[in-house]
Amino acid sequence: MTDDKAMNLRGVHVFKGALDGAEQAQLVDRVRDIARAAPMFHPETRWGKRMSVKMTSAGQFGWVSDRRGYRYEPRHPSGVDWPPIPAEVLAIWERFGAKGMEGAPLRAPECCLVNYYGEGARMGLHQDRDEADFAQPVVSVSLGDAGLFRVGNIERGGKTESLWLESGDLLVLGGAARLVHHGVDRIRFGSSELLPDAGRINLTLRVVS
Ligand SMILES: O=C(O)CCC(=O)C(=O)O
Ligand SMILES: [Fe+2]
Prior knowledge:
- The protein is mostly beta strands.
- Helix content is about 15%, strand content about 35%.
- This is Alpha-ketoglutarate-dependent dioxygenase AlkB.
- One of its GO terms (cellular component) is cytoplasm.
């Protein structure tokens, strides 16, 4: 892990190439372990529309969405516990989480949300605001195909800026940028050879309670 290439996009800390190929491959194995214990699913929105991204989680809480709306839940929709957050993922939090803190001590992450973007999947502009403690950062890991990440403002609307996130890039939403709007417009399907069936995996680590 390296923070050699630190950049800042509207307060969002971006670490290009933070994970080398071996670290990325190891994380993909850990994601497979998570998906074996807690299978990926296409969440539905409150309005009955299926999200294009597939998801699962590790940790004490997982993020779910269905007709009742979106929220953190202590169990997978099937009723099984979410598997623990892998040690390799916790190490990333320990190393990079503090970059998004302004003084307060870094707590342990309680959720590792796993998003899988297949061909054509995207994620609309949103804020990560279902967590109780906004002093704690969100740390995001990109694996596989490149994704066009858009960053807006704390308030809705206004100008945005975009950046291609590639496999091994890390991002920290913290401090003044913790509640910035962000989303993924599209992925360059097949641009990476990390995943045998292509697509993009994104991990986000969050303190929930
Ligand atoms: O896939 C990404 O890079 C961002 C994911 C995201 O914003 C989220 O899961 O809340
Ligand atoms: Fe988000």
